[in-house]
């Protein structure tokens, strides 16, 4: 019997009665990472140690946690094993590989990134027959410049702001993107201040073993000459309004789209992303070598169409779809 896959604000596997990244509270769920759109108040979860610690900070509460080390198989049900592999998205992010004697192997990626980062474990590419993958940037024009090039451009922006007597403000998610920015600015030797929300998570990263260059908590009285890293939602907040002379930049993969600075009402935008770009999505599929690919999120239909043109069976799944797929026999 093939794997049965349903999508209902998360991936549901009825044969083993486990969810993958369910958006709403469920009895049992795998949590790929601690971003708010991938967690909920589940009764029982599987996750990595890093995700467990970050979830405790962002979504405290009582739950049964099965904390699995990377690349170590555990028995999930009587006939199904589970192995977590690093996904490279943020610290602790994980792929979930399920192996069943009858259904075959299933790899669920969650969010992932092949490009090496400084604040997340390197992404792994385990083999699987059925691949369920995120495809946020699943169109060909999403090709990110090398990280070192983007960081050099961000550093130049910051130096320019300071030379003009302004405060450079970098908008990045408080979990993941901000820590990557902090690491990336080390070579530029720019003094950095962190928004309180970003600071709280940076301290947890340090508990988990990530080493950052020097930084300090935001202080208006000592602001001159500093770079400020803060969450995107601070763009319209009292926090930002208290900085009198400022120049802002959004740090996002969507910076490749025309109009990003107008959409986010900022002065600049830089394409530093914690997701795979289009070439890396293709490379990931080539490395996993699946018989069937199911795509999720972003440009899922476009990327599935691209894979079919390359001779790989692939289909986009979305809300309210219920699908059953038989793996081809060789």
Protein architecture, described:
This protein has 330 residues and is of the alpha/beta class. The chain folds into two domains: 4-141 and 275-324, Ribonuclease Z/Hydroxyacylglutathione hydrolase-like (Metallo-beta-lactamase, Chain A); 147-270, Rossmann fold (3-Layer(aba) Sandwich). The chain has helices spanning 49-58, 147-163, 177-184, 196-207, 238-241, 260-263, 278-288, 300-309, and strands spanning 4-7, 11-13, 18-20, 28-30, 44-47, 64-67, 74-77, 80-86, 94-100, 104-108, 130-134, 167-171, 192-194, 216-217, 227-230, 246-251, 268-270, 292-296, 313-316, 322-324. The chain has a seven-stranded mixed sheet. It has a seven-stranded mixed sheet with strand order 7-8-9-10-11-18-19, with helices on one face. The chain is globular.
Write the layout of secondary structure elements.
Layout: E1 4-7, E2 11-13, E3 18-20, E4 28-30, E5 44-47, H1 49-58, E6 64-67, E7 74-77, E8 80-86, E9 94-100, E10 104-108, E11 130-134, H2 147-163, E12 167-171, H3 177-184, E13 192-194, H4 196-207, E14 216-217, E15 227-230, H5 238-241, E16 246-251, H6 260-263, E17 268-270, H7 278-288, E18 292-296, H8 300-309, E19 313-316, E20 322-324
Parallel strand pairs: 3-4, 4-5, 5-6, 10-11, 11-18, 12-15, 12-16, 13-14, 13-15, 16-17, 18-19
Antiparallel strand pairs: 1-2, 1-20, 2-3, 7-8, 8-9, 9-10
